[in-house]
Amino acid sequence: MIRAGQPFRPWGKVDNIFSAIPNTDWAYVGCVSAEDRCSIMATYFPRFGHFSEKLVFRISDKPSEATAEIRDKTDAHQMAFENNNFDAADFFSANIFDTFGTFEDRFNSFLADMKSTRLLLDISTLPKKVFFHLVQQIYRNADKFSDVIVTYAEPAEYCDDNLASNPEPWDALPGFRVARRQIADLKILVGIGFEPLGLPSLVESGEFNNSPISFLFPFPADQASNAKNWRFIRDIFPNAEQASFKVKRIDGTNVPEIFDLICGEGDSGNIDLLLAPYGPKPMSLAMALYAAKYSNPPNSQTGVYYTQPTYYNPNYSVGVRIQNAKPVINCYVIRADNQNLY
């Protein structure tokens, strides 16, 4: 679906997108983690081009009984990067609980020194509090980029245990805060995922009593994912049949379609929204793009609030999904030929 007057927004599998792009140099920003998929873009990209400048965040959880396992898996994946022309200097280590200026300063420094006009941002394992900020900075520094592509690698499977825990308190993601007195008046869009991460207690406390709430439900989905998504809603509203909310089913990988849905809900910035990105990463990317575009107080306000986990299961996901003997890496063209497409 393309809204009237909007540009065509290419998206699809990595091979299809880059088959239409000349082989050339790109800057790369991504994340090394305990998940196998974190390094797939680094190892698969040489057939399409070359990463001339690189920034790889290595973000540690709070200490736990799984710290050693997480470190060992992350070390192994960092080696996969280094075996594909990444150097030790390309990695930036920080803690998930560090003050946000730690991440902001490093990315700003990377932008200031960047020579390439083409940027590939891999959000496969980047925490949302980080990649929302990166998307906002890309918008604010759009003139530095001729082309921006965001990639997301799908895992072979997720673990059956809790994926993440120990969330920080409900708060705005950096750069997307609205005045507390306004929150009760905002329309709320919640991306549905597998872990509600503290949302049930917020609803129980009456935080959203007067706010119209819509859930963005990833559809279609396999049976296991569908069950987890409905459990997400029932964890928040145990008496779902009596609760007042709307469920909007949408393809969880189709960023242009999700973006257009959010534009409809927010009347393209004329209606203030509060976005809660608990859903799949492509859905959160659409939220980040909307918030970056339509968060210009006092004319338009888009708040983004989340309960950022401080612990991720070392087996959060396993492997990389393979289809037709190729890794499933979704690509979203955000800027092309010096034009923002969102």
**What's the total helix number?**
10
Total number of strands: 20
Q: What's the shape?
A: globular
- Uncertain runs with pLDDT below 50, 5 residues or more? none
Strand content: 25-35%
Mean pLDDT: 89
How much is the radius of gyration in Å? 19 Å
Can you summarize the main beta sheet?
Answer: 8 strands, mixed
Helices and strands, in order, run as EHEHEHEHEHEEEEHEHEHEHEHEEEEEEE
Straight-line distance between termini: 13 Å
Q: Portion of residues in helices? A: 25-40%
Structural class, judged by helices and strands?
alpha/beta
Task: Jot down its keywords.
8-stranded mixed beta sheet; globular; about 30% strand; 20 strands; alpha/beta; about 350 residues; 10 helices; 6-stranded mixed beta sheet
How would you describe this protein?
The protein is α/β, with parallel strands linked by helices. Strands 1, 2, 3, 4, 5, 6, 19 and 20 form an eight-stranded mixed β-sheet that branches. The chain has a six-stranded mixed β-sheet with strand order 9-14-13-10-11-12, with helices on both faces. The protein has a two-stranded antiparallel sheet with strand order 7-16. The longest helix has 16 residues. The chain is globular and about 55 Å long. The two termini are 13 Å apart. The model has no long low-confidence stretch (mean pLDDT 89).
